[in-house]
Amino acid sequence: MATTTTTPARPRTTPARPRRPKRPLGIVRYFLFYGCLTLIAVVFIGPYLIAFFGAFKSEANLFATSPWAPPHSLYLGNFRTILFTDHFLVYLGNTALVTCVLTAGQVTFGVLAAYAFARLEFPGRDALVRKPDLL
Q1: Distance of alpha carbon 20 from alpha carbon 25, whole angstroms
Q2: Helices of type H across 24-87
Q3: Under a CB-based contact definition with an 8 Å cutoff, are residues 53 and 69 in contact?
Q4: Over the stretch 54-108, which tens digit does the pLDDT of each residue have?
Q5: Alpha carbon distance 55, 78 (integer Å)
């Protein structure tokens, strides 16, 4: 039976590098970058937040308080009005129908076009395959 010997691992002989102090300009750039990102996030999220708060306010409360203020109590009458008196469900059904028909058409014609590119030879096919943004 063979025996194996192991040698202990040698400790690292290279000294650890000292940490560089952060440059003041790098910290300023860091805060400016994330400050701009925060401002952009507020600009994009703000209208959604106002719409969300407005959905749960009554009409009197909507015009009496700031748009940024959350509702004092949850008012669900707005949803009842939209769903049952303004024909919202009819509009939603029309949108779903048009979306399904258009999606089925896109998939059908996409499959036919893919078959044509894969199996048929026609002039200009190679150019269209090389530059798909021309399609």
Answers
A1: 14
A2: 24-55, 59-64, 77-84
A3: yes
A4: 999 998 898 999 999 999 889 999 999 888 888 899 999 999 999 999 999 999 9
A5: 7
- Give the number of residues written for the chain: 135
* Whether the Cβ atoms of residue 86 and residue 72 lie closer than 8 Å to each other: no
Q: How far apart are CA 98 and CA 85, in angstroms?
A: 23
Of 105, 110, 101, the C-alpha closest to 132 is 110
Cα torsion 46, 48, 53, 54: sign: positive
- Can you give the pTM of this predicted structure? 0.54
Band of residue 1 on the pLDDT scale cut at 50, 70, 90? low
- Tally DSSP H helices, then E strands, for the chain: 5, 0
Ramachandran area for residue 124 (φ above 0: left; ψ -120 to 50: alpha; else beta): left
Q: For residues 125 and 129, what is the distance between their CA atoms, to the nearest angstrom? A: 6
Question: Which residues lie below 8 Å from residue 116, measured CB to CB, with a gap of 6+?
Answer: 122
**Structure token digits, residue 72:** 């004092």
